Amino acid sequence: MHAIPLNYNDHVLVPLAAGERGSFASMVIVTKPNGARWASGVLGHFAEADDACRFAIEYGKAEVDGRRRPRAVKSPAESPAETELGTRHTTPPCASTPAS
Q1: Residue 13, beta-bridge partner list
Q2: Can you give the residue range of the structural domain that contains 59?
Q3: Could you tell me if 51 and 38 are in contact, meaning their C-beta atoms sit under 8 angstroms apart?
Q4: pLDDT recorded at residue 96
Q5: Most C-beta atoms within 10 A of its C-beta, which of 2, 3, 46, 100?
Q6: Residue 83, domain member (yes or no)
Q7: Does 66 or 83 have the greater pLDDT score?
Q8: DSSP characters for the chain?
Q9: How many other C-beta atoms lie within 10 A of the C-beta of residue 42?
């Protein structure tokens, strides 16, 4: 499971990818500036852990910004790193995303 914190707009996002090879559940934990935390629950399933983490980061950023949240694809066999807009994520994988 990946769990490397990322600072974003005074919040801390902790993307999580839990599962086994071929099926990783994407989740995110968000800590607000006042210390309050909330967890997303399962956001979707992905074929790769890094794709699950990238999605969790994008979801957390959208929540913090008050934007429309991305939707996960329905199946790991489909292009797992795509959102409903058909764009690929550009956030680095969770394994290499240091907190700043």
Answers
A1: 6, 30
A2: 6-96
A3: no
A4: 41
A5: 46
A6: yes
A7: 66
A8: -B---EEETTEEEEEEEEEETTEEEEEEEEE-TTS-EEE----EEESSHHHHHHHHHHHHHHHHHTPPPP---S-TTS-TTB-TT--B--SPPGGG----
A9: 12
Q: How far apart are alpha carbons 85 and 9 in whole angstroms? A: 23
Pick the more confident residue, 18 or 75. 18
Res. 97 pLDDT band, cuts 50 70 90:
very low
Separation CA 100–CA 82 (nearest Å): 26
Q: Is residue 81 part of a domain?
A: yes
Gap between the Cα atoms of 44 and 52, Å rounded: 8
Q: Tokens representing 13?
A: 């996002």
